[in-house]
């Protein structure tokens, strides 16, 4: 049986101010449309029946990418996943972000899906959040009252739930520059490689002091490891100030596994996911270290 | 009759289910009186039509412009049968509102053959037996074009990665891979 979309009115304002005004007016009756690769199927399945679908497609500037060595990257919420996957700037300065983008769904979906949409759908398994969390991304949220900026860490409030209010739009991400002597790795683990939803996804980002080989900064962030994308902050702390030998990596990997709260689903059991978290953490840290070592 | 042999369970509805409407919606939305003007260029031809806001690009291409080469299969982005180009990018037409394509240039499978002559990718699919039931073929061919437009000499791994969003229920993937390779070789 082919599902069709429920009826709604389509709004396509030309400016962000108009969009925010319309959201103020219609509030919970409206759904914001970015790439549509999540919203359209979800509406076909009957998960949403908005009276108004508010498209951001005609608003210029929301898909800008702007990199500065000192301040980092400003990434418009409407940047397509394919744009991030292929961007030379992102490949060079934030390779774990390009890595995550390249593993999201299919070529056709990457051509439509947006980074802001991936965050606002807030699937616990979403591909973009681990790398963005590891990079200490800030989310810029607009409403008619102005903008507020908050760490992406505070953005997710539950499975498919975010801190966004009905009258707000995620407009931009701000990613600080990577520190020198840093490298990371994004790992997506699933049963197959095509069109997979991560059984566990994770990003590791390490900074090593070249003088004494000690870890001076570490970030470990996970998808499908809890009801929201999370960072394993205790495990991160364990790595800092240490030389990363096999013992310390194993200890941190075990800590990350304990900090997570994965669920049992048909994809994998909680116990299996916990094992995966420690195994993948170890692997991702090793790979990141090799990348730093090879400069 | 043996219940296991009964097809009664598999009867398909003759028509797509009518669009549901949320309870608190304004009357105009419930009654579906909100047509929008849509201007799109499809295979080099300009069109101006009236569409319902809840129609996908796929529905409008097939039902209003009668371009039925583009197929509907899963209707939720898994299978790739509905792949078309929007402003040069391959997308799933089932996941895009028709109105989101306002002002764009669209290429469908019907736009590939020129002057009664098949496109080289189509030729390659025919010559390598990459068409079985044929339902996935339009999407597969559009994806092949997208891959080769961007990377004229892809590795097998790169082809597989770009084809990840396409399903062939006849499982004729080996011949499809051969056809993509052959089309690439011919272009070089």
CATH class category name of the largest domain in chain A: Alpha Beta
Binned, the helix content of chain A reads 25-40%
With strands numbered from the N-terminus, the spatial order across the biggest sheet of chain B is 2-1-5-3-4
Assembly classification: heterodimer
Task: Report the end-to-end length of chain A measured between terminal Cα atoms.
Answer: 54 Å
What is CATH's topology name of the largest domain in chain B? Ubiquitin-like (UB roll)
End-to-end separation of chain B in angstroms reads: 59 Å
Using a beta-carbon cutoff below 8 angstroms, give the protein chain pair with the largest interface and the number of residues from each chain. Answer: A-B, 37 and 51 residues
The percent range for helix content of chain B is 25-40%
Which structural class matches the secondary elements of chain B?
alpha+beta
Strand order of the largest sheet of chain A: 4-5-10-6-7
| Mean pLDDT across every amino acid position of chain B | 90
CATH superfamily (homologous) name of the largest domain in chain B: Beta-grasp domain
How would you describe this structure to a colleague?
The complex is a heterodimer of chains A (295) and B (188). Chain A has 295 residues and is of the alpha+beta class. Chain A folds into three domains: 9-55, Uridine Diphospho-n-acetylenolpyruvylglucosamine Reductase, domain 2 (2-Layer Sandwich), CATH 3.30.43.10; 65-175, Uridine Diphospho-n-acetylenolpyruvylglucosamine Reductase, domain 3 (2-Layer Sandwich); 182-293, CO dehydrogenase flavoprotein, C-terminal domain (Enolase-like, domain 1, 2-Layer Sandwich). Chain A is 34% helix and 24% strand. Chain A is built from eleven helices and 14 strands. In chain A, the strands form four sheets. A five-stranded antiparallel beta sheet of chain A has the order 4-5-10-6-7. In chain A, a hairpin with a 2-residue loop joins strand 6 and strand 7. The longest helix of chain A is centred in the last third of the chain and has 24 residues, at 270-293. Chain B has 188 residues and is of the alpha+beta class. Chain B folds into two domains: 35-111, Roll (Ubiquitin-like (UB roll)); 120-187, [2Fe-2S]-binding domain (DNA polymerase, domain 1, Orthogonal Bundle), CATH 1.10.150.120. In chain B, 30% of the residues lie in helices and 13% in strands. Chain B has a five-stranded mixed beta sheet, sandwiched between helices. In chain B, strand 1 (36-42) and strand 2 (45-51) form a beta hairpin. The longest helix of chain B has 15 residues, at 173-187. Chain B is elongated, with a radius of gyration of 19 Å. The N and C termini of chain B lie far apart (59 Å). Classes of the chains: A alpha+beta (295), B alpha+beta (188). Chain A binds chain B through residues 1-10, 12, 29, 33, 36-37, 40-41, 44-46, 49-51, 53, 55, 57, 82, 105-109, 111-112, 193-195, and chain B through 12-13, 16-22, 24-26, 28-30, 32, 34, 36, 52-56, 59, 72, 75-78, 80, 83, 89-92, 94-97, 99-100, 102, 143, 146-147, 160-162, 164-166.
């Amino acid at each position: 049986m082919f599902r069709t979309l429920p009826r709604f009115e389509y709004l396509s304002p030309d400016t962000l101010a108009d969009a925010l005004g319309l959201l103020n007016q219609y509030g919970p009756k409206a759904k914001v449309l970015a790439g549509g690769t999540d919203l359209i199927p979800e509406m076909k399945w009957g998960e949403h029946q908005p009276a108004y679908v508010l498209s951001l497609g005609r608003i210029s500037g929301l898909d800008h990418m702007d990199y500065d060595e000192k301040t980092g990257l400003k990434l418009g919420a409407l940047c397509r996943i394919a744009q991030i996957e292929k961007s030379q700037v992102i490949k060079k300065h934030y390779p774990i972000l390009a890595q995550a983008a390249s593993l999201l769904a299919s070529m056709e979906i990457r051509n439509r899906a947006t980074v802001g949409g991936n965050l606002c759908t807030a699937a616990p398994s979403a591909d973009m959040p681990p790398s963005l969390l590891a990079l200490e991304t800030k989310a810029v949220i607009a409403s008619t009252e102005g903008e507020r900026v908050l760490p992406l860490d505070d953005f997710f409030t539950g499975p498919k739930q975010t801190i966004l209010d009905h009258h707000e739009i995620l407009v931009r991400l701000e990613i600080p520059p990577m520190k020198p002597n840093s490298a990371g790795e994004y790992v997506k683990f699933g049963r197959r490689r095509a069109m997979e939803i991560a059984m566990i996804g994770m990003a590791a980002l390490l900074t090593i002091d070249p003088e004494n080989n000690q870890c001076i900064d570490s970030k470990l962030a996970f998808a499908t490891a809890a009801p929201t994308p999370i960072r394993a902050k205790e495990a991160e702390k364990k790595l800092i100030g240490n030389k990363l030998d096999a013992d310390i990596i194993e200890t941190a990997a075990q800590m990350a596994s304990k900090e997570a709260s994965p669920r049992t689903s048909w994809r994998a059991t909680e116990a299996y996911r916990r094992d995966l978290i420690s195994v993948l953490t170890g692997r991702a840290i090793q790979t990141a270290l090799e990348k730093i070592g090879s400069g | 009759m043996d219940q296991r042999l009964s097809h009664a369970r598999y009867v398909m509805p003759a028509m797509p289910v009518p669009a549901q409407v949320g309870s608190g919606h304004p009357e105009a939305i419930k009654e579906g009186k909100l047509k929008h003007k849509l201007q799109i260029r499809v295979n080099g031809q300009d069109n101006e039509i009236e569409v319902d806001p809840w129609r996908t690009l796929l529905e409008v291409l097939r039902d209003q412009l009668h371009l039925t080469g583009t197929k509907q299969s899963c209707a939720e982005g898994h299978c790739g049968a509905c792949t078309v180009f929007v402003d040069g990018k391959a997308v799933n037409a089932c996941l895009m509102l028709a109105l989101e394509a306002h002002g764009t240039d669209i290429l469908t499978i019907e736009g590939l053959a020129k002057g009664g002559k098949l496109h080289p990718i189509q030729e390659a699919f025919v010559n390598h037996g990459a068409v079985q039931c044929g339902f996935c073929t339009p999407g597969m061919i559009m994806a092949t074009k997208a891959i080769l437009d961007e990377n004229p000499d892809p590795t097998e791994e790169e082809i597989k990665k770009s084809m990840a969003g396409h399903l062939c229920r006849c499982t004729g993937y080996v011949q499809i891979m051969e056809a993509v390779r052959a089309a690439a070789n011919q272009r070089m």
